[in-house]
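Repro:
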Amino acid sequence: MTLTQSAIDILSRNDRGGFTIPTKGLYPYQWNWDSAFVALGIATYDMDRAWGEITSLIEGQWPDGMIPSIIFRSDDPDYFPGPSRWGKTKGPIPSTGISQPPVLATIVRKLTEDGSVQDKARLADVFDAIYRWHAWWHDARTVDGIVTTVHPWETGRDNCPEWNLGLDAMTVAPDLAPYTRRDNKHVDASFRPSQEQYDKYLTIVQFGDSVDWDQRRLTDEGPFLMADPNLHFVLLRADKDLRAMAAELGKPQAVRDQIDAWIAKGEAATDTIWNDELGAFTARDMHSGTFCNGFSNCSPLCFYADSGSAEQWGKTIDHMTRIAAQVDYMLPSWDPEAPDFEAQRYWCGPLWPQMNYMTALGLAEQGHSDMAARVQNDLCRVIEKSGFWECFNPLTGEGCVGNNFSWTAAVWLSWQHDKKLEGVA
């Protein structure tokens, strides 16, 4: 069986009748940015089902515009924290009370790039929901001009060492309700976040529930608040793609002006996360103003968002060149020279497929073809070596955490499809 057929089979097995789970057991629900990437992969062989993935995600949108990080269409006792722990959230379907990186607009634009009448109709059906979600980010999560995050889970990079700044300043809630983790039942505990980190993750959840998931209060009063290059650059890129789609659909000038204002705000905020001492875009604690002092796999997303100065881009490429000489497979989620680098622990070192996808795309668009090829080819090589894992050890290529993983299969399918279109495969 070819890898392409294996990828299709993985997505089919993970299909739960209109939405796709990341992988069986460990992640039994619909995750936000996972579904966006899943749609990208499914579109290579079933465009109707790809659009179904997108519309099923939008079904969980809250009245205030937020699309939550997880949509709970059931209560699986083998997953924690499930809907009961999140309390009474405000969406039409039980969900988490936080969001995830808003890649959806960029994926939707990719799916409609052929410009057919049917594509335009599908785009028109989802545009307003995506626009409302972007408005939510700009209204509910913006602090001092930059989009922020209230929880490491909201960034999609759960236990990246960047969050230690904010987590170390937190205290665990003295009345934190007891709980039993389920994630360590499915995978080696050494691959997953620590118990102390989990206590603090749940402290934030408990605070959110205590304020009835008032999103502005969660941002302004919650125990954790950081600016994240991943959220910043993904939203800025998505705003630009949303603006292009607004023009294509002939949306009112007021809508286009609003998106233009969001883009201008995002461009102005890029320097907020530039760590001049390190020479890289890094996370920043918004309570103290302190920068994280490490290069992560979202630092190069400045190319994906087409934001930052020539000097900043040059220093970013310098970091990537340095790191590329130290690993067999680009792009590790954390700098291998950092003391807290761990090659197989979740976001402390492994290579992540969806991050390689965005990074390679941005590098190629901005003319850094050699580094783009390295990032893309290394992910393909590691899949050929180990299969469709959630993430991979950048030193050995060994698969980490969950196997038969949906977004890994989806990125593979998207790239193989693009190669065929370009006549190189």
